[in-house]
Design brief:
mainly alpha
Length: about 100
Amino acid sequence: MLDSDAALIQEANDGNLRVSFDLVECYEETVQGLSFKACRNRDKAEEALQDTFINAGRRLGQFDGRSKLSPWFHSTVTNYCLMKHRKRTLDEEMVLPGWSTDER
């Protein structure tokens, strides 16, 4: 991991909000690309981007620092998109025969 990332992560974990915004700025383009690639839909990718950074803020203390942040973000985005896809699939399966999805 880059020393600068390690320092930013430590400061963010210590509660420095400015540094948290710096991390978002640093990785926003990467996470946005990953989100669109995983979701293949602009709106869903935007949701994945936002959720990824929200979760990153909550779980940054769990990041072990043995690698760069980008693979960690990649797994977070991928898991989010898979979870949303599974939920949408389950919702579609829950529709009773003869009902349209508009009648739910």
